[in-house]
Amino acid sequence: MVKFGDVACPEAKLHAIGVAAREAAVQLREASRETKDAALRAMAAAVRARASDILRANAVDVAAAKAQHQPAPLQDRLTLDGPRIEAMAAGIEAIAELSDPVGRELARWTRPNGLDITRVATPIGVIGIIYESRPNVTADAGALCLKSGNAVILRGGSDATHSSAAIHAALVEGLRAAHLPEGAIQSIATADRAAVGAMLKGLDGAIDLIVPRGGKSLVARVQDEARVPVLAHLEGVCHVYVHAAADLAMARAIVLNAKMRRTGVCGAAETLLFDRKILQSHGVAILSDLQNAGCEIRGDENIRAVFPAAKAANEEDWRTEYLDAVIAVKAVDDVEDAIRHIESYGSHHTEAIVTEDAMTAERFLAALDSAIVMWNASTQFADGGEFGMGAEIGIGTGKLHARGPVGVEQLTTFKYIVRGRGQIRP
Fold first, then answer.
1. pTM
2. Stretch 293-307: mean pLDDT, rounded?
């Protein structure tokens, strides 16, 4: 097994990783819930026990990011502290508490000829995960794949090499404690981009699904070059629409949180839409909140008329995922105008409406084709942990298989089990 820290990963090693993963997937398919949960709890305990080691490793990665003058949002995603490590461990434990997604009976029926047909959830097999910056993805991905009966091959970014290595060691400790194969959670450590190319080709047929988690360039490359199915979202151009019937106090709290809680996450609001009838009554106060929190505001002419401190927005701002303390702001005529704007410029990730008008809210929720639509809630809830999934492997915005937060149930497929009593087809 190749571990984080190896400087080279020749083709033979990559092939061996794929073989080990495929063999582990066979064993995991039949692993009991008790065995998988025991491994997960051991992993969580190991993460806590190794917290000092993880923090020391993370300090090396963060120092390197600062020396390279990496953007502040990337440094935030990279940085671990005591609460974030505890959240990582608690997330693994939360996954252990979930029902086993494998073997779920999804549907069952009997044909006129007596055949009993059942649709049953089953693991996908081997999942390859390519990610950047976020060392917590190592724990989330490993735990989610194990719970769903899948083997996983991790390829983290070079900027989080040391952090991911320390976290991965805790996961392996959990596998050993439960007597599960170490090939169930493996890692590819080389910075050579050729390793990513090998994964995208499927590692000689070993990988069944690729999940990229990172910036636009990484996801675009994966989607362009992959020869196996991909589950991903390219961008998170998320919107908040403040309707004319919005409660001002609620709108102020939601908008500020949606944009500024963590600007570097994919669920952060990037565009704010105001009903033009409330620009004076609501808009000025909300924009002042954002400005006072250090957010740069780029507005259309209507926004700048009531809030001169805003910079002029251009066409590109409406389709930009800033992942920073910058927001594009536009005035719209009504909910239909808001829907048209979102459908034209959005990325089908997460949209929210703030209003006390239930009929308008339901129109908004029904009309938009985004993976997540919200009423009177911050877009920062676009997260598997907040959805009760324990954690997530990413947000899916495609039309097939999984949409929204990808948790353990979304990491399964299904098969049909047919039981007969000697029937033959005429």
1. 0.85
2. 98
